[in-house]
Amino acid sequence: MPGRRSEARERLLTTASRLFYTEGIRAVGVDRVMAEAEVARGTFYRHFEGKDDLVRAYLEATDQQIRSRLTAAKEEVGDPSAFLEVVARGIGDELCTAGFRGCPFINAAAEYPERDSVVHKAVLAHRAWFHQLLQDAFQQLGVADPKRSADAMMVLRDGAMIASYLDDAEAAGVTLVHGAAALLAAG
Prior knowledge:
It contains nine helices and no strands.
């Protein structure tokens, strides 16, 4: 049954996550993932329906990691303004990490532009959640248009992710933090 937890499934997912992020999803075949995870074909198909299902699982696992980190940060700081600053600084710091290859969700959307694919749907689900998280924080601050503020923060984030990969990561992070501060000041 797909989705069942096991050591082999976790090895497949860990290996796929590393390879998909560092080399690109379409560039990495299932045979390579199985070989590097040391998992037989039959075992792979007991856990995943195929490559798209594995990619979906990779994105959902990444989504869950991000949700956990941001939920913990939100609980820790409490104040919505401080939370939004933490989000911007955290993303800015991430841009400068070794091996950073852009946003896994933006990368996946570029490789799977078909909006009805399970991969693209996983990307959209993550983005909808993240947008709502931002919108809720802006709403708690009492800004005039929390949706528009969240839209702006998403665009700043997306732009910083891409700029850091193509240009100067540190400058992209600083610009993101500056842009978030301007959003917060504009209220």
